[in-house]
TrEMBL record:
This is Dolichyl-diphosphooligosaccharide-protein glycosyltransferase subunit OST5. One of its GO terms (cellular component) is endoplasmic reticulum membrane. InterPro entries: TMEM258/Ost5. One of its GO terms (biological process) is response to endoplasmic reticulum stress. Belongs to the OST5 family.
Length: 76
């Protein structure tokens, strides 16, 4: 019964690329959310649309932040 070394599911050399792409996508969702809030009247806004766009923005930004920390060598 031999042990194998742990290998992460994502190669460490891709962390910086993932950080850039995921953060960019998160900022795109964030900018869409801000533009939606500014351009729509209060009566025309949809709570489900706001929550879904906010959820995607937070998921992509948090994933991008996590991969930024991993690319810089900050492990928590």
């Amino acid at each position: 019964m031999g042990y194998q070394a742990y290998s992460p599911p994502i190669d460490t050399k891709h962390y910086s690329n993932l950080a850039i792409v995921l953060t960019f996508i998160g900022f795109c969702f964030l900018s869409y959310f801000v533009i939606y809030q500014i351009t729509q009247n209060k009566q025309q806004r949809s709570l489900t649309k706001e929550l879904s766009v906010g959820l995607f923005a937070s998921l992509f930004l948090s994933s991008g932040t996590m991969f930024s920390f991993l690319a810089l060598g900050l492990y928590f």
